[in-house]
Design goal:
The complex is a heterodimer. By secondary structure, chain A is an alpha/beta fold. Chain A has twelve helices and 16 strands. Chain A has two domains: about 240 residues, Rossmann fold; about 140 residues, Rossmann fold (3-Layer(aba) Sandwich). The longest helix of chain B is centred in the middle third of the chain and has 5 residues. The radius of gyration of chain B is 15 Å and the shape is elongated. Classes of the chains: A alpha/beta, B alpha+beta.
Chain lengths: ~400, ~80
Amino acid sequence: MDDIRVVEGSEAVALAIKACRPHVISAFPISPQTHIVEGLAKMVADGDIDAEYVRVESEFSAASVLAGASAAGSRSYTASSSQGLLLMTEVLYASAGMRLPFVMTGVNRSISAPINIQVDHQDSMSLRDAGLIQFYVESVQEAYDMHLAAFKIAEDPNIMLPVMVCMDGWVLTHSYERVQFVDQQAVDDFLPPFAPEHYLDPAAPKTWGSYAESDVMMEFKYAIHKAMTDGKPRIREILRELSAMTGRDNNGLIETYRTDGADIILVALGSVTGTVKDAIDELRDAGRKVGLLKIRCYRPFPHEEIWQAVKDANVIAVMDASFSMGSEGSIGLDLKAKLFGRPQAPMVVDFVAGLGGREINARTIRRLVVRAEEIHRLGLVLPEAQWVNLDASIVS
Amino acid sequence: MKLTKGAVVEGGTSLNYKTGNWRDQRPEIDQKVCNQCGKCKDVCPDDAVHRNNELYEIDYDFCKGCGICAYECKPEAIKLLPEGK
């Protein structure tokens, strides 16, 4: 009998984490992450999960508790947003370096100042260089599914890195959707108990992330990069196993939508991809050759898949919900880095859209497609990033 | 040598890592002035001063040249000299 219920996005995530049988959960509340960790706190208090819930005074401490717990061999989880994720930053770099495979939900919210609690991707994108594996999800169902896979990917002996599942604040965490849950026995079969090669043990003391001089520091950093890039086939394999378990299409580091024969391909991630798919249906009905490439796994960056999907297009319109001040949007930069120098590579036009929760609807996407076509037709060399629906007249 | 994931190493290995090459000042004990009070050994944060028979000696494999021993030495038997001279 299928377990299908309409639940809030945060509850779906909490139930996915519960199904993964965590030992330690530690978090500090921040909107819009709160419902996830409140849900888990209640499950621990009610005895529904056999875990320690560690209340802390800051996100820095939450991440530190996770680092210690994970080193001690405990499957560990946290969630945060915005400033909270930034406060964790130092610990997250260190945790990736110590190869501690905990899982966290990055509930996307903009970064102060000025203060704003709505969604954009600046917070998690600021962590893209830390050594975390990052997934971005489109729906509540995908959020549930990816959290089931997250521990398995993190704890893979050849990967051993923290995994961050990013989901858009409010849009996904606070909306109710139909979710199909996976049977606990199936999750247990899919996700074996955490059994790391090394763990903290007073009987056999070890130290993590100990001192490395210039003779080996580069090698330790390269090892993180290699674990990510060499880990891609394993991540694909685990996502295939996830698909087999869920009966849904969780496959692939990317997902393509109507890209066959497309002249323009939009590239986006997160919940906006649902809106983009609807807009593409309308544009296709009107005879426009437009498709979508959704990035599901952002780190490691799936550039091989992306190239295969976009190589026959004329122009790629990237939708970035974050920006590297003084440069360009995050995904635009990644794409250009990997496409530059390839003969016949499509033109990349970077659109910055949706910062601080600014609405992106089908009309926004139609205008963006028109603008991308125009830039391509004009043959502009190295076009500047396009800030969508920006009112430049009020900028002083 | 293969590096471990996460730089995980067994405990009790600090003697394998000679940190004396961080030093830019070198403490030297004038044994004629030293009164063997042992304060230099007590205050050394790196346990780099050892008693050998009656004499106190500095283990330059681990002395980082912080100078606390010279500062604390009452008879001023320890001089801090620039390293490498």
